[in-house]
Amino acid sequence: MFVRIEELSHLYLRGTPFEQTALRSITLAVARGECVGIAGHAGSGKTTLIRHLNGLLQPTSGRITVNGVDIAARDLREVRREVGMVFQYPEQQLFEETVFKEIAFGLSGTGMSIANSDRRVREALHAVGLGEELLGRSPFALSGGQKRRVAIAGALVMRPEILVLDEPGAGLDPQGRREILELLEKLRREHGLTLLLVSHNMEDFVRLADRVVILKNGAVAMEGRTREVLLDVGALESAGMAAPQITYFMMKLKKAIPEINDRVLTVAEAGAELKRVWGRKPGRKGSHAERDDHGAVLPGAIGRSQVGPEDQDSPGHDFHGGRVCC
Ligand SMILES: Nc1ncnc2c1ncn2[C@@H]1O[C@H](COP(=O)(O)OP(=O)(O)OP(=O)(O)O)[C@@H](O)[C@H]1O
Ligand SMILES: [Mg+2]
Questions:
Q1: Higher model confidence: residue 238 or residue 305?
Q2: 12 vs 93, more confident
């Protein structure tokens, strides 16, 4: 395994009256090129966990190896080149006068020539989809989404093999979130990055993560393939989390229409399932659905459009006068 976290525990303010156990014997492995999603209720230890990955925090006990080497035994600068970190709040990460200086920060002290660092900064800027006109601007004068991208560029400029992101979509509008996710997908596809992604949003994981880890009170409560974890709704809820909204919708619908497969995680999957059950695309009225032997539309078909496709042709559903009873 590329990254191994073994029996990692972390206590804050150890030995003081304020001692706080944030992580309890966490064991996890991440393969090269894999994307692992990390979720858990507020205070469950997500940020504490990932901050160990580039040496920002030291384990109270346990260890972390990257490529087989314990990071505690390595030069931290080297570890930070290999493991890029994007903080939960970009404001915590940005402090330079200009976007250029901000992105170039990690390169200072590496002995890289000005020409080379200039090239690397522009390369990182383009990789996150920002234009060069921003290079002279103050990072604090940018929008939330732009700040997030600058923070990601500041990590990418080091050409890391692992990118760790703490809530990269937090505080962004839906379009901003979508753009950041698309960016991460692109980075993974084009640069083969190994990603560790902390998010509260399960939809982010459906799209991006191979596996998901759910933390609860500093310990691993669930771990497995993304679909398996997110569809285990009872266990998710016990861990203080929730499945995607569309999964709950389909679970309710299944109560009225038992043949529906409610193991869906996205609106697209739900659409495909409804189409499978109702047999055709929505929006084409009066075709072969619900007709008798002479081609007349059967009573009861009207009104079903309130719950989905307009010409459902799967008989036997309990629609209760046109509305699905859930
Ligand atoms: N600097 C600190 N000093 C003392 N305790 C801390 C410190 N940082 C975090 N903690 C405590 O450690 C626990 C885990 O915090 P952490 O920030 O890792 O949680 P989180 O899962 O990232 O939460 P959130 O979803 O709110 O970001 C919490 O109980 C928190 O109060
Ligand atoms: Mg956090």
A1: 238
A2: 12
More confident residue, 282 or 89: 89
Q: Which residues surround ligand 2, an ion (CB under 5 A)?
A: 46-47, 88
| Beta carbon of 40 within 6 Å of any ligand 1 atom | yes
The two beta strands, 20-30 and 194-198, are: unpaired
Alpha helix stretches (DSSP H) within 164-299 = 174-191, 202-208, 226-231, 233-238, 245-256, 267-278
47 lines ligand 1 (CB under 6 A): yes
Global confidence as pTM:
0.85
For residue 43 and ligand 1, the question of a CB distance below 6 A is answered with yes
User: To the nearest whole number, what is the mean pLDDT of the chain?
Assistant: 87
**20 CB near ligand 1 (under 6 Å):** yes
Nearest ligand 1 atom to the CA of 44 is: 21
E-only strand ranges, the chain: 3-12, 20-30, 35-40, 61-66, 69-70, 83-86, 162-166, 194-198, 211-216, 219-225
Confidence of residue 297 (pLDDT cuts 50, 70, 90): very low
Domains and their CATH numbers in the chain = 3-241 (3.40.50.300), 244-287+297-326 (no CATH)
Q: Are residues 290 and 297 in contact, defined by beta-carbon separation less than 8 angstroms?
A: yes
Locate 78 and state its tokens: 């080297």
Predicted confidence band of residue 91 (pLDDT cuts 50, 70, 90): confident
Ligand 1: which of 8, 11, 20, 197 to mutate, judged by most atoms within 8 Å of the beta carbon? 20
Distance 287 CA to ligand 2 centre (A): 53
CA 26 centroid distance within chain: 20
Instruction: State in Å: Cα 124 to ligand 2 middle.
Output: 25
| Nearest CA owner, ligand 1 atom 12 | 22
Rounded to the nearest 10°, the torsion over CA 116, 117, 119, 123 is: 140
Contact 21, 59 (CB under 8 A): no
Burial of 178 (0-12, 13-18, 19+ CB in 10 A): middle
